[in-house]
Amino acid sequence: MESAQEELRVIEGQLTEWERNVAQIILDVPLGRLVTYGCLAKIAAQRHRNYSPKAHRAIAKLRMKLYGLLTHDTKVPLHRITTQGDLDSKNDSNKTRRENKKRRAEEGTPYDNTAWWCSCE
Predict the structure, then answer these.
(1) Distance (Å, whole) CA 108 – CA 111
(2) DSSP code of 116?
(3) 87-117 pLDDT, tens digit each
(4) What ranges in the chain are assigned the alpha helix state H?
(5) Which of 66, 73, 96, 110 has the fewest CB atoms within 10 Å, counting from its CB?
(6) Chain centroid to CA 100
(7) Sign of the alpha-carbon torsion through 18, 60, 64, 4
């Protein structure tokens, strides 16, 4: 069984350097916690000194790309990324919404404002 890190290693040639950096940050999101696209963008800017006001949109596209490359069975915790205040993943596809709900429940993610990992917003 591959780990999340091994999964990313397999597809690294299909990712830009910035995407690889953000994917590594996604691996840092703790079990049972959520992070917003904006917060990931700010962390990426702090760690890699590369920030764009639209970076949160690029992270949303990266998440979709990773789901496409790795499928919903990935060990990479993409289900921990969401829009601020959107505990139901309303902006996601039905499949992603169902998978997020299942995985978040398995991890014991709180269904309230204590679920947020990042306080950089």
Answers:
(1) 9
(2) B
(3) 888 989 999 999 999 999 999 999 888 898 8
(4) 4-11, 17-27, 37-48, 55-70, 94-107
(5) 73
(6) 11
(7) positive
One-letter amino acid at 64 equals M
> In 32-80, which residue ranges form alpha helices assigned H by DSSP?
37-48, 55-70
Structure tokens at 93: 């596809």
User: Token pair for residue 49?
Assistant: 């000194």
What is the reported pTM?
Answer: 0.90
Q: Which residue, among 107, 8, 22, has the nearest Cα to 60 in the 3D structure?
A: 22
CB 115 within 8 A of CB 63: no
Q: How far apart are CA 81 and CA 29, in angstroms?
A: 9
